[in-house]
Amino acid sequence: MHYVDGFVLPVPRAHIEAYRRLTQDAGKVWMEYGALQYWECVGDDVPMGKRTSFPQAVQLQDDETVVFSWIVYASREERDRINAAVMKDPRIAGMDPASMPFDAKRMFWGGFQTLVEMDGGSAL
User: Fold this and answer.
1) What InterPro entries does the annotation carry (predicted)?
2) CA distances (Å), origin 120, targets 31, 40, 114, 124
3) Cα–Cα distance between 73 and 30 in angstroms, integer?
4) Separation between Cα atoms, residue 40 and residue 56, nearest integer Å
């Protein structure tokens, strides 16, 4: 079974292209170090909930949208190794948090062991 890091964050609609460029470059770094998949998805049908929802979780503002992202690794051990290498890589380590095209204070993330995996309609 694989291991997955998941992320949810608010991105101003006006900064989606800058976010795409940033994460496309960052994704290449993760993949170079061994990540199996790198996904960045922009909200298209993300309704406000009555009790909880993606918009509520990130305190979404009127000019923002929700981004849902994940990175797939072969195992937790591989994830830990890859993330340690990525964080030391000057392409990532040199990024200024103040210049990010999103509010990292409202971002949340976590690491997950897979429970069920399917691809193309069949169990892996």
Assistant:
1) Dimeric_a/b-barrel, DUF1428
2) 22, 20, 17, 9
3) 10
4) 20
Looking at the DSSP bridge assignments, the partners of residue 38 are: 71
Record the pTM: 0.91
CATH number of the domain residue 91 falls in: 3.30.70.100
Residue whose entry in the numeric block shows the structure tokens 């608010």? 10
Q: Are 13 and 64 in contact (CB under 8 A)?
A: yes
Kindly indicate the confidence band of residue 97, based on its pLDDT and cuts at 50, 70 and 90. confident
Residue 93 in this model has a pLDDT that exceeds 70: yes
Calculate mean pLDDT across residues 53-73.
Answer: 97
70 inside domain: yes
Phi, psi of 49 (to 5 degrees): -90, 170
82 in a domain, yes or no?
A: yes
Between the CA of residue 43 and those of 15, 47, 101, what are the distances in Å? 14, 9, 16
Our count of domains for the chain comes to 1
Is residue 34 packed enough to be buried (19+ CB in 10 Å), middle (13-18) or exposed (0-12)? Answer: middle
The per-residue pLDDT for 121 is 67
Longest Cα–Cα distance of the chain, Å, equals 43
